[in-house]
Amino acid sequence: MAAIIWLGAGLLLAAGETLSGDLVLLMIGGGALAAAGASWLGAPVWLAAVVFAVVSILLVVAVRPPIKRRMLSAPQTLTNTDALIGKEAITLGSFGSAGGQVRIGGEVWTARPAGEEDSFQRGERLIVRRIDGATAVVQRGN
């Protein structure tokens, strides 16, 4: 009977993890499943509780940190204007510090040079350094 209670607790904790996403409940649920296994093998309740505590602590201390690091180090997908930085821009006409227009990935953007004394000719390939409002700040690629 104790094994079924430990098993139920482990499953509930694992299910509760879907709400928190911090992996703590999942690790404690693993401890409860280990206690269920110990109880199933005939361990007394106090020993199953010790197995639960030891396995839970080991999982939280030793297993959770590397899993969290791996989850947090996943490459992030840039979106919106952040995705344009570093992209190629092609000038649609000659322009200088007053600005002009460029094509970035099929879209037309207003643009201005990164350096005030820079000027560009039509058809020149540039690099987007940043987006300032609705204006791409561009410079020649180096």
Automatic annotation (TrEMBL):
Its main location: membrane. It is found in: Membrane. The keyword Transmembrane applies. Residues 82-140 form the NfeD-like C-terminal domain. Keywords: Membrane, Transmembrane, Transmembrane helix. It comes from the Bacteria. Pfam families: NfeD. One of its GO terms (cellular component) is plasma membrane. It is a multi-pass membrane protein. The chain crosses the membrane at residues 44-63. Gene3D superfamilies: Nucleic acid-binding proteins (2.40.50.140). The keyword Transmembrane helix applies. PANTHER family: INNER MEMBRANE PROTEIN YBBJ. This is NfeD family protein. It comes from Leekyejoonella antrihumi.
